[in-house]
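Two proteins were folded this term; both appear here.
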Amino acid sequence: MTRTFPQLFDLTGKTALVTGGSRGLGLQMAHALGEAGARVMLSSRKAADLEQATAELQSAGIDARWIAADCGREEDIRRLADETLQRVGEIDILVNNAGAAWGAPAEDHPVAAWDKLMNLNVRGYFILSQHIGKRCMIPRKHGRIINIASIAGLGGNPPQLKTLAYNTSKGAVINFTRALACEWGEHNITVNAICPGFFPSKMTQHTLDEMGEEQLAAHAPLRRLGDDEDLKGITLLFASDAGKHITGQWLAVDGGVSVITGG
């Protein structure tokens, strides 16, 4: 029998793991998943931030827990996966969101910073997806993986933004999403990516301070920056049965910035 609109988006009984979930976009997506009925496991590096974020979710009536882990370290990633499975059972939804940025001219970009971004922004997504996929999604023939990329992964930047490694890593996330979706589609696992534009956050504060909110918003056809609810809809679409026939796709949530052509 065909389900209703609310039934398709209902995540009651599902469990979600959100990396980089203690603040910003990760916490916003955790709210969306929890508000739709999912049990949520948050992860980031700092326990104090996780305690505060979990308390915020719980005050909203969401079943939320946390595990501190560094997704730039393979041993931490595997521990995160194993402990999550032990504490809350099978994972239905994986949100790969933990990431870092670095600004420097290409000719002076530190190699160590390049390696840090590739390790966390790409390698970390691969290791956690592999572990969760092999342990519970493939055996159960069900799963939803959401990778957070960026519109920076779609091309270059205005001259004042010099984030070569970040752009490269997010471009890799987009093609990682496509390739993994092709391999795991036979297991009924969807893999999709969200490409946010500029959202005020701790990671983007330096750019916001340098360029100003008005100047950044002026680049968007909608003349605004992302806010605390703009990722909720796409997160639920990719995580729920409403999006069960969507895989290998990316969607920009950027106020229209990425569709501008001609400079």
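Next, the second protein.
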Amino acid sequence: MKKNYREGAIGAGMDEYERAAEELKNLVGNISESDFVKIVDAETKDEDCRSVQTIVSHVINSGFGYANYIRDWFSIPKSSPERRLISLNDFSMEVDKMLAYTSETLQDKWEYSDEEIQKVKMVVRWGPQYDFEQLIEHAIVHILRHRRQIEKFSFSGKISIINS
């Protein structure tokens, strides 16, 4: 299958975001419904990290949030869904919706120059200020960190991953 790569730094970031999301979808697609909803870490203070379901819901909700920071900067209307828990059945489709929303947000910005990228500054709710590219890089690594977290649940025997 031929892959169409986007141009520019922003385009490359979106391509990698989609790749990270695909890896997460493949991993979660091999988890049973019972392990998906199972409370794996009842001790954590972070309610977004108690189960695979809360983790992936957090990843999707955050993805819409990252796109909304960019939409705010560029005065693009927002239409993201309310934060909610995502079912295993809806997970893949919801990831695809989040990616489509992000791609739509970034349309016509793929080939921004370094200077244009650095002019776009967003202060995020957890404190730091990111430029355009840094926010996209954060979104990619956010998925990767939580994919790793789910893999660790499996490696520690807290959940089972089919075909792992």
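Strands lie at 121-123, 129-131. The CA atoms of residues 133 and 159 lie 35 Å apart. These notes refer to the second protein only.
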